[in-house]
Every structure is written in structure tokens, then in C-alpha cells.
Amino acid sequence: MDVNTILARQHEFFASGATLPNSFRIEQLKKWKYLVRTHEAEVIAALATDLHKAPTESILTEISMVADEIDFIIKNLKTWARPQKAKSPFPTCWPGRSFIHYEPYGSVLVIAPWNYPFLLAIQPLIGAICAGNCVILKPSEIASHTENLIYDLINNNFPSEYIAAIKAGPEEMSDILQEKFDYIFFTGGTQTGKAIMSAAAQHLTPVTLELGGKSPCIVDETADLDFTARRIIWGKFINAGQTCIAPDYLLVHRKQKDALVQKLIAVIKHFYGDTPETSSSYPRIINTKHFHRLARLMQNGKMIYGGKINEDDLFIEPTLIDDVHWDDAIMQEEIFGPLLPIITYDQLDDVIKLVNSRPKPLALYLFTCSKANETQVVNRISFGGGCINDCILQIANNHLPFGGVGTSGVGAYHGKYSFETFSHCKGVFKKTIRLDFRLEYPPYTGNKLKWLRRLLSM
User: Fold this and answer.
1) 449 falls within a domain
2) DSSP character for 60?
3) How far apart are CA 336 and CA 79, in angstroms?
4) Are residues 363 and 420 in the same domain?
5) Best CA proximity match to 176, nearest among 158, 203, 211, 149
């Protein structure tokens, strides 16, 4: 069945009102919770084949996050979906009452990436469902085993007029994007995001773009280095660095650099052993194209740890790189792999100016014991979201919005923010018919202006 046919059927199904009741939405969310639980082993196997992920990592970073999101939404959906009262200004909107109603857009296109191919496909799908939409989901063809699993999970358990999964490469997607969807949600690279936004503009289709960028990690002169090293190495090398919110590069105070480097090396060895290639806990690069891109970036700067590669196994060792320059290729693009450049600084003010002179990052991390430094960084640098004294975990909090700013993204989701993203916020004013003062009606003669001025000054 082609996308045009699926979309037409979804528009018809949506128009029937079947997706609107909270009971229907919650039923679908519970069905997804059941599918995630009963197909956990298959998800783990697919992620292991696509990315060499250990079962623990797959559960921690993909499966459990989907399950937690479903539980959180089920618990809160009725409250979120309830019409919200709003103030009615006097005398303009008196006598009457104002409300905010949330309504679904209709048929949503969700385009998922390959790096967390289960999480970043199902999580936005759950958001679209909870808001009452129909969905067409396009999993990443690069993570092909997870793509096949998601395709079967959806198309074997849901009618296509409600939820459908499709398979498509870049050429097919160009044609698919010519269709008129009611909303488009995309996770991926900035250049593809620009193309999707351009296609959406032809129909004035609203979009959410979850992109990426170079996310800095700042380690100041007050940071606890043992703790800092553990959190940075975990956040950087989980999924072999193929994480859009991984620390892209370190900005380390000069007084801390040498000690921090030694601790980073010690933690790498503790996590993955002296030969990470033999570690069952260390993933692989997704394909040869990305492997070659990363191998090219490794030629910049001076490797101070790691650097071993094996193309046949798509293995790149956790690698620390010193002496990089801002005009090097490794500092001109998002790394998206297990390479960590280290740059020293002397004054925090210089770091703030440096980061602000570049495209706004999706994430920022600061390790510090100084409240003053924390305040400076949070207040003066624009970034999508981040952590103080940690990495990655902002994405695990259902109470926080997740999204970028500028070139790192448009819009946000997770928890209530998913519900709001996939809903149109409709303002409604209800006037009482028992009173009608008629001051706003023509003809504007007599004492109307005088009384209007008095009312407006109250």
C-alpha cells in the first residue's frame, strides 16, 4: 500500500472521531506497553545486530525509557487533555469564560534515526498517539534489523488507517515528503532537517526537528575529577559515541587538564578493559560510511589514548585527542563517534564567548562545585538542554522538555511536552447571552466613547 493511500485512509479514520476519546488513547498506550514488554528479547537482539549493544545498555537507554514514558503519559493524560481555564480580561471579555482546548493535528509523519533506532522511533510515536493523532512511522533503514522489527510490530498489531510503518530510503522519502501531512516530526542531522523543513513549507505543515550539533562539556577548576571522569566517559562512549547529546568536546581548565586526562584513561580501562575490542559492553559503528568519516576525523590533533580501529568489525577504540584547532575538521562537524577532543582554557568568560560564537548546541554539560560558575554558564549560554555535574540524563526526565534551539532543533517533546507538541492549542471564549451592553456596536455616537473610556480605565 502506498503512502498516498495510507494517508487518505488515515484522514478518513481521524475524521470519524475514533481517536479523540481518552479511553481510546490510553487503550493504545497500554497495548504498546504490552508489546514492548513481550518483545523485549527481540528488541535486544535487533539492537545487538545493528549496533553491537549489550543487553543492559539496550534496556537502560532504549527499552526502559519507552516503557517509563508510556507509564508517565497514561498516569497524566486525562489531566493534560482536560480543557484548561484561562482568565477573561475585564471589561473586554465580560461577561464570559475562557478555555484552552487541546486537539490533535490529524495524521503525523514520524521519521526516526538509526543511532537509537527503537527509542527514537517509538517515543515520538507514543507522543503522537497520546495527543489523539494517526501516525505514519518511518524507521531508519540504516539500522535494518530494528527497522524490520518495528515494521512488523506496527503493521501486525495496528490497522494502517490508524498507525502504519513504512520502509523508505532517501529517494523514496523525497517523494513521500510531497504529501500533505498534518504534522512532521524528524530526528536526525541538520542538513536533512533543512530539507524536511523546506518540503513541509510547501504545505505550511508544522514540524518538530530534533537535530544535533557540537555539544560542549566544560570542566572548571573546582570540579571533582574522579566523579567527573566517570560521568564523562559513560556519557561519551555509551553507544560508541553515536548519541546526539553526547559530549562532543571537552573544555577543561588548564589547572585540571593533566589530572583529568589520567583519570579519563583510568575510567576507560575500568569500563572496557585494556582491549575494548573484546569487551561485550562496547558497541560498534553503524556502517562503513560512518566508520570512514570517523577515521578521517582521527587524523586531526594528537591522540593521547586509543586510536585502534578495525574496519572489518566496524570497531573504533575510545580515543582521547589533544592539540586540536578550531579550524580542524573534527571541530567543524558533529563527531557522533568515540572520539573526544580536549581543549584547555584559562578564563570561564572566554569559554562562554567561544561557545556563543558558534551554532547553538543541542546539549551542554558543566562539571563544577562553584555556584557562581553554574549561574554564569546557564544564564549566558544558549543550548537545548543539559546537566550540571552529569551527562545525558536530562533526556531521562519525563518532566523536562527535550529539544534543540537554532540549528540544533525546533520544538521539544517528552512527557507533557510530547502531548503539547502533537496537539493544537485552541483558545475558546464563551460569552453569556444574558447580558449584552452594546457599547461596541455602531453607531458610535452619543456617550458611548465616554463610557468606553471609563470602563477601559478600570
Assistant:
1) no
2) I
3) 39
4) no
5) 203
Set of cell numbers at residue 391 = 551527562
| Residue whose C-alpha cell reads 569487551 in the numeric block | 279
Residue 210 bears catalytic tag: yes
Residue 248 lies in a domain: yes
Name the nearest CA neighbour of 299 among 276, 325, 275: 325
Give residue-wise pLDDT tens across range 265-322.
999 999 999 999 999 999 999 999 999 999 999 999 999 999 999 999 999 999 999 9
Same domain, 139 and 277: no
List alpha helices for 63-180, DSSP H.
64-81, 119-130, 144-155, 170-176
Residue 457: inside a domain: no
- Tell me the HSE value of 238 on the side-chain side, using a 13 A CA sphere: 22
- Identify the pLDDT of residue 458: 64
pLDDT digits (tens, 9 = 90+) for 93-132: 778 899 999 999 999 999 999 999 999 999 999 999 999 9
List 147, 210, 334, 420, catalytic entry: 210
Question: Contact 236/271 with Cβ under 8 angstroms?
Answer: no
Residue 442 confidence (pLDDT): 81
pLDDT attached to residue 171: 87
Domain boundary among 369, 403, 437: 403
Q: Can you give the pLDDT at residue 374?
A: 98
Instruction: Examine residue 456 and state whether it is found in any structural domain, yes or no.
Output: no
3-state class (DSSP) for residue 79: helix
DSSP 166-185: ----HHHHHHHTTS--SEEE
CATH number of the structural domain spanning residue 300:
3.40.309.10
- How many whole angstroms separate alpha carbon 33 and alpha carbon 41? 14
The answer to whether the beta carbons of residues 73 and 418 sit under 8 Å apart is yes
Same domain, 237 and 335: yes
User: Which entry of 130, 217, 244, 391 is annotated as an active-site residue?
Assistant: 244
Residue 291 burial class via C-beta count within 10 angstroms: exposed 0-12, middle 13-18, buried 19 and up: buried
Please tell me whether residues 206 and 254 are part of one structural domain.
Answer: no
CB-CB contact of 355 with 361 (8 Å): yes
Q: How many domains does the chain have?
A: 2
Identify whether residues 296 and 376 lie together within a single domain.
Answer: yes
Q: Which residues of the chain have pLDDT under 70?
A: 439, 458
Please give the residue range of the domain that contains residue 25: 3-211+409-425
In eight-state DSSP terms, residue 138 is E
Q: Rounded distance, CA 117 to CA 76, Å? A: 26
96 in Cβ contact with 88 (< 8 Å): yes
